[in-house]
Amino acid sequence: MKILLIEDNEKLASGIKRGLEQEGYAADYVLDGESGERRIEFGTHDYDLAILDIMLPKKDGIAVCKDWRKANIAIPVLMLTAKDATEDKIAGLDCGADDYLIKPFSFDELLARIRALLRRPKEILPAELKVKNLVLNTTNRDVARAGKVISLTLKEFMVLEYLIRHPNRVITRDELYDHAWDFAANAFSNTIDVHIKNLRKKIDYGHHEKLLETIRGVGYRFKA
Prior knowledge:
Structural class: alpha/beta
Radius of gyration: 19 Å
Number of strands: 12
Largest sheet: 5 strands, parallel
Strand order of the largest sheet: 2-1-3-4-5
């Protein structure tokens, strides 16, 4: 896996680069927004993830990320920011970033967030996802099966969306935690089991064909 770091503090950038390389990643860094934007645009498939600081010379990270998304460049973006105000976090996510990390941060947390982003699907999927007679709309969060609307909580929707985006593949509990819960969540609780149980009742009850199955001791699978 190859990562591009766009960070104007060269001491920090070189330190992160060394750390990533010690963990088995290939890593490059550039020191301004324009250089980082060009590096990805001219080598779209050269990198698996971009770590992008917000405060950059020549072009800020928000503008860089927006331009990537306008150009349909779907590389996962982890935004770095020294600002912890809610509006700054929202601005980072609304521009197309997949996650954000507030400085100063621990290197272990950076690695955990990188691993989580690299496990996500790389392709841009349509807003409406359909598997057999179940339809999920990611824009308005509507879910229906056989034309009947199904009411889901936000977490149930997030879990179902992730499963549908990976049809016929066994998804582990850790993957679901990475997608739908923050790092403070207790991965040893029965939270996932409860949400899967509720989802199964809502989407499979009354239907002859069951879409959501548990693979005992491994995880869960959505049958397509």
